[in-house]
Amino acid sequence: MTIKEFSSRTGISAHTLRYYEKIGLLRHIRRLPNGHRDFSEKDIQWIAFVQRLKDTDMPLEQIRRYADLREAGDTTLAERQQLLENHARGLRESLAQQQRHLDKLNEKIALYRSAVKRGRLS
After folding, report:
1. Which PANTHER family match (predicted)?
2. Do 56 and 82 share a domain, yes or no?
3. Domain range spanning residue 22?
């Protein structure tokens, strides 16, 4: 599929896709005789995983490290696992912190709801 089709399916701009290719996140993209990129379903699956890592705030440098390990093959399985486990741990900590913030906001909202009912804040 063309870069335009790939961009449309992934929601990632063509500019960003070219950048990802340049920094090594997208590798071995097939080229047509005219030089245009020809993306595959496998590329869609990979970029969806990359996007998931980005959406969970994994830094691009770590994503590139994961891509390097993936490229190196099965001898890096344990290292890839560790990288993802570390990221998951940080994500759980972040989610717990966000939950604590949400709980405090809900307490404040409840206080205001009560005050609005009474017509004043105690």
Report:
1. HTH-TYPE TRANSCRIPTIONAL REGULATOR ADHR, REDOX-CYCLING DRUG-SENSING TRANSCRIPTIONAL ACTIVATOR SOXR
2. no
3. 1-72
